[in-house]
Write a structure and sequence with these properties.
Strand order of the largest sheet: 3-2-1-7-8-9
Bound molecules: 2'-O-acetyl adenosine-5-diphosphoribose
Number of helices: 11
Radius of gyration: 19 Å
Structural class: alpha/beta
Length: 249
């Protein structure tokens, strides 16, 4: 057996033990969790990653929206189509079927909820594709049928443009959700990091916070991470293969 394989098997054993013993387990996920459901990631070696092909400054920022609002809305509606067609994969199901877990996610789909996770146990740091809100400060928002999302349109309350309720670069995370996620992170004794490049702050800072507060860190990713510490357990592979195994009795 190769050295890598022995190392991975030992890491899986360690991770399973930590999961069994955890009293306040939290998952922290990114686009890699939903990749096997057919939803593109943002930064990956894979060329289909969104930020390899598209410009985030144009499609995910206030300046980009001001310069070409129709382009931005059309792009989000195209992403909504992929989410509308997606079903939870085995990694979502492994997480969503655990009781007592909290799930902090950067993902704007609802596949964790669709896989059985209680909505109140899931904290969406970067918002959702299932809602639009007014781009001005009037506060109007409405739910979206992602199978049939509206094209660029005006806010019925104040006449500014409507936009998806996702967080763009330069914007703050939703305050209440981020505050609750910080509290859950501080309480965590296990922080299971799944499918994120951990490059976008402040979300990625929760991994350091969890570690500082004494949680065990397990990282599941198809690629090696560069910012791990000695006691962290790293598992290289697809979340859809690894997570069901981690939770198997
Ligand atoms: P990224 O696309 O930056 O990272 C996805 C990670 O998942 C990469 O490290 C991949 O190696 C890994 N990965 C890919 N497929 C996987 C699989 N099947 N199993 C396990 N790992 C896999 O996505 P995020 O870290 O979520 O922000 O990106 C953070 C934020 O940047 C997003 O929420 C988005 C983006 O700009 C907003 O839209 C506000």
């Amino acid at each position: 057996m190769s050295e890598n394989r022995v190392h991975q098997e030992n890491s899986v054993k360690k991770a399973k033990l930590k999961i069994t013993e955890a009293r306040h387990p939290v998952s922290f996920s990114g686009a890699g969790l939903s990749a096997e459901s057919g939803i593109a990631t943002f930064r990956d070696k894979n060329e289909a990653a969104l930020w390899s092909e598209y410009n985030p400054a144009q499609l995910a920022s206030q300046d980009g929206f001001k310069s070409d609002p129709k382009l931005v809305i059309d792009w989000y509606n195209w992403r909504r189509q992929a989410v509308a067609e997606a079903r939870p994969n085995s990694a979502h199901r492994a997480l969503g079927s655990q009781s007592g877990w909290r799930h902090i996610t950067q993902n704007v789909d609802w596949l964790l909820e669709d896989s059985g996770a209680l909505p109140e146990s899931v904290f969406h740091l970067h918002g959702t594709l299932f809602e639009d809100h007014c781009n001005a400060t009037c506060g109007y928002s409405e739910m979206i049928d992602i199978n049939n999302p509206a094209a660029l349109r005006d806010c019925p309350q104040c006449g500014d443009y409507m936009r998806p309720s996702v967080v763009w670069f330069g914007e703050s995370l939703p305050e209440a959700v981020f505050g609750a996620a910080i509290e859950e992170t501080k309480k965590a004794d296990l922080f299971l990091v799944v499918g994120t490049s951990a490059k976008v702050t402040p979300a990625a800072g929760l991994i350091d916070l969890a570690r500082q507060e004494g949680a065990d860190i397990i990282v599941v990713n198809t690629e090696e991470s560069s910012n791990l510490k000695d006691d962290d357990v790293e598992l290289i592979g697809k979340a859809g293969d690894l997570l069901p195994d981690l939770f198997r009795e």
